[in-house]
Amino acid sequence: MIHSLFLINCSGDIFLEKHWRSVVSQSVCDYFFEAQEKAIDVENVPPVISTPHHYLISIYRDKIFFVSVIQTEVPPLFVIEFLHRVADTFQDYFGECSETAIKDNVVIVYELLEEMLDNGFPLATESNILKELIKPPTILRSVVNSITGSSNVGDTLPTGQLSNIPWRRAGVKYTNNEAYFDVIEEIDAIIDKSGSTVFAEIQGVIDSCIKLSGMTLSFMNPRLLDDVSFHPCIRFKRWESERVLSFIPPDGNFRLISYRVSSQNLVAIPVYVKHMISFKENSSSGRFDVTIGPKQNMGKTVEGVVMTVHMPKAVLNMNLTATQGSYTFDPVTKVLTWDVGKITPQKLPNLKGIVNLQSGAPKPEENPSLNIQFKIQQLAISGLKVNRLDMYGEKYKPFKGVKYITKAGKFQVRT
Amino acid sequence: RHDDLKEMLDSNKDSLKLEAMKRIVAMIARGKNASDLFPAVVKNVACKNIEVKKLVYVYLVRYAEEQQDLALLSISTFQRGLKDPNQLIRASALRVLSSIRVPIIVPIMMLAIKEAASDMSPYVRKTAAHAIPKLYSLDSDQKDQLIEVIEKLLADKTTLVAGSVVMAFEEVCPERIDLIHKNYRKLCNLLIDVEEWGQVVIINMLTRYARTQFLSPNQNESLLEESTEKAFYGSEEEDTKDAKAEAASLAKRKPYVMDPDHRLLLRNTKPLLQSRNAAVVMAVAQLYFHLAPKAEVGVIAKALVRLLRSHSEVQYVVLQNVATMSIKRRGMFEPYLKSFYIRSTDPTQIKILKLEVLTNLANETNISTILREFQTYIRSMDKDFVAATIQAIGRGRGPPPCLNGLVQLLSNRDELVVAESVVVIKKLLQMQPAQHSEIIKHMAKLTDNIQVPMARASILWLIGEYCEHVPKIAPDVLRKMAKSFTNEEDIVKLQVINLAAKLYLTNSKQSKLLTQYVLNLAKYDQNYDIRDRARFIRQLIVPTEKSGALNKYAKKLFLAQKPAPILESSFKDRDHFQLGSLSHLLNAKAVGYQELPDWPDEAPDPSVRNVEVPEWTKCTSREKRKEKVEKPFYSDSEGESGPTESADSGEDPVSEGGGATMVAQGTLCSGSEEEEEEEEEEGSREQSEDEEEEKKPKRKEKEGTRKAAQGS
């Protein structure tokens, strides 16, 4: 299974190594650097690299490469999934998964890695168990620790590891009993030149934050969903037979389900884009004119609109005026970003002006595609609704809240 | 060096020790050598402070291998820990002890593992399972003894142990498939409650097991496929139906009935397609791909498509597997065609894989949609991707529209696009009877503009090959090429010579002098390949008194019918590797890869999986349980009597003594152990409060037997 792990930053420094079996020399990473060089782009580094004695499986998260060393056959997804779980855990503990955060908390990182794998096989990956074993750092605690000399390592024993429901700590008590559910939906879409939808689907998740004392059962009643994946706490049988989510909630933040409403069901696209991008032959300039407008949105406003465009390499500079929001153009990466903000249907935001091209360069073949981000509060575009939320087996009445939000996922307009 | 650290470690204050250990661990993390501190650190192995202790363990495991003698000093601490009343301390002692790679302590480790394997705490047993591969890698001579332990742990009934022990099994003795028989049904039934990483390992192992023990559910597939292929061409459906029926009747001389255990596996893994863990989903998908009847494989497509939304590394692996699957089971992914459409922001490696899948999915009905989509891709800024797209178009099924699309590309402004299309068109023309002189003429005109050598060479080859279809143009092209011969790249020069030779043979009147000229130029070329070729061809085609018998056959030699190149996916036949495995991804056998066996011709004896002694917990297959529900039924009082127990083993004739064994087991339970068991059950009961009906009778029964035990 997983033999060793190296963390490498963007400039190619190995800043952390951990071995679960006998030590593997850092020089094995040379193969990785070689592949990285060949790939040019960070995102094109192949996740699996074969070297004479080892296999390297890597992920790229938050400007860090997590490179694991494997010696024998193992499902690659097993390793990839685990590495992402490691990154998630860092995120959870330190608020961010950055090189500085990891370096500052190197001891905790080491303790975590030690608990997560035993001899290369995952042992405790559930955040609740880990938090019982190793307390996450807080400012208060680090001050207290430096005075009293007490430690971050929990002195209670991790009983969660023994239980049948490892995602829940034993004996949780809260004064306020709360349960929040965020229904977040993202629209993935490809819109073609003429404005018709080539592909669209909705990707949804229900993120939950539950602070309830004792064991409880909650019920939610979502409309039939097409394709769902569950947190292990959900009882599958109940879902199969009654289409009801029944679960003993983990403590704190977690993702309850994620689902997909596929393109077969018609997906409403909440915005439209009018665009006119053209490059003139032999004149080293071009025109750029984009307008964004809302479609029928059930009376909700579209906010947080941001458009990013990867302009062709030949573009030198852009001279644009925006009727709303502000734009930036990075001449190095050739990325145009237009931060629009809220769309008001009375006055549609528009961005237009002149594109300056490198003189002498041939006219770009392709018009760049537009990537759009937006947010709509209090709306689940698929029409999903939480119908009931019940709790069983406890006397108190918890506070329950459900929030809806629709966002753009990978939303691309071809021009 | 490190004197300050040593001093801090020797002090009495825990806070100083802790500070020192933290600094040492930070050094280890950065890959710096801290081995000279070993004596100072190892002294603290029995420290009271729990964090210091943990950090010392980290240090110890890292350096014990280098400082074997000193490491022995710490062993006694762990041995004491193994006897601790607290299960978690026992487990952690075993964990560290087994991680210390010092060969001298192998006997101690062996003993500790054996003891821990019969510990009453499932958590300690799990740790024992983890320790097995560690010991095995340290000393492979212990294999036989370790297999005994594995056998014992495989019989364990708790979900906590199952994943870990199967992992140990896979690493130590994957060939001992016979150890699984008795535990097969139990593993299937426990699967859904095992932690996610264990699920992956168990599912992969069971895939291999099923391949050795059951018959192929798709025995008739090859016959059926043939007849469905016919359906495309034949218009009369009834005809094919008849053929199908015929084929079926032929194959079904012995009708195929799926082994209930095979069915059990398929049924119990299906819900896991909804796991949040991509590795679990992939494991189930490969299980279905390799084991399920053709009609049922489709269910995995949806789950795999869902994974495409995940991190790009996950996408990469999933797409590789989808590419392989889509060759054999195209229909499965057709409804999800659009999910493989490419975004300009995808990384190139993802784009190319998606392209592969799209190409595999192409058929007569969707080819126009796909080609329209491809048209968009060709204008992309990512040139590698454009080249790949054109190759994909070439591979697409349904030749005529493809070819037209490609010809349009020939007037593209980008040279790379044109060059790539020329190469693909060459391949396509070669596959079809040459009635495309228009296209060849068009390409001949391109020689003036295209500079990419490979494309020029391809055009020349085409003109030479089909020179009889373009009798007027061919000599003219040769004239132009003769003019620029000295400035051409080597591959182009070779093709010029070929063209000259072919023209000489078909149209010697017009091209005799030109050919002579080209051959003379080539004779003095710098490249010896070209000189050789020129010499060879001259001897072959120009009749002289010395030239031998081959001269007569020159035309046959040069203008023979050439077999068309086969354009096929690089993912073809990759499914002989178990899908989802590292070997499949690399398309090469990885170290430790277990070959996926072929289905047996005759099913091995299914009775080996019967469990003879009725057990306390889940072990009987579902069918049996259901049977129980229907029976008039034991009330609690009935449960007290022995004979009812034998109903549990229903169809099993061996279990006459079943009831008696049961009681005996009950009485054997010592107080503490029973309490532990009860605690465990309590937990699982709360969780499964409202789970399926079927379990209820079993619980009653359990309570019944407990009473029986107390009674006796």
TrEMBL record, chain A:
CDD domains: AP3_Mu_N. Its main location: membrane. SUPFAM superfamilies: Second domain of Mu2 adaptin subunit (ap50) of ap2 adaptor, SNARE-like. InterPro entries: Adaptor_comp_med_subunit, AP2_Mu_C_sf, AP_mu_sigma_su, Clathrin_mu, Clathrin_mu_CS, Longin-like_dom_sf, MHD. It is a peripheral membrane protein. Residues 176-414 form the MHD domain. It is found in: Cytoplasmic vesicle membrane; Golgi apparatus. Keywords: Cytoplasmic vesicle, Golgi apparatus, Membrane, Protein transport, Transport. One of its GO terms (cellular component) is clathrin adaptor complex. It comes from the Eukaryota. GO terms for biological process: intracellular protein transport; vesicle-mediated transport. The keyword ATP-binding does not apply. Belongs to the adaptor complexes medium subunit family. This is AP-3 complex subunit mu-1. It comes from Eurypyga helias (Sunbittern).
UniProtKB/TrEMBL annotation, chain B:
It holds the Pfam family Adaptin_N. Residues 672-693 have a biased composition (Acidic residues). It is found in: Endomembrane system. Residues 2-542 form the Clathrin/coatomer adaptor adaptin-like N-terminal domain. Residues 622-633, 694-706 have a biased composition (Basic and acidic residues). The keyword Signal does not apply. One of its GO terms (biological process) is intracellular protein transport. GO terms for molecular function: clathrin binding. Keywords: Membrane, Protein transport, Transport. Its main location: membrane. GO terms for cellular component: endomembrane system; membrane coat. InterPro entries: AP_beta (IPR026739), AP_complex_bsu_1_2_4 (IPR016342), ARM-like (IPR011989), ARM-type_fold (IPR016024), Clathrin/coatomer_adapt-like_N (IPR002553). Residues 622-712 are annotated as: Disordered. The keyword Cell membrane does not apply. It is a peripheral membrane protein. PANTHER family: ADAPTOR COMPLEX SUBUNIT BETA FAMILY MEMBER. Belongs to the adaptor complexes large subunit family. This is AP-3 complex subunit beta-2. It comes from Eurypyga helias.
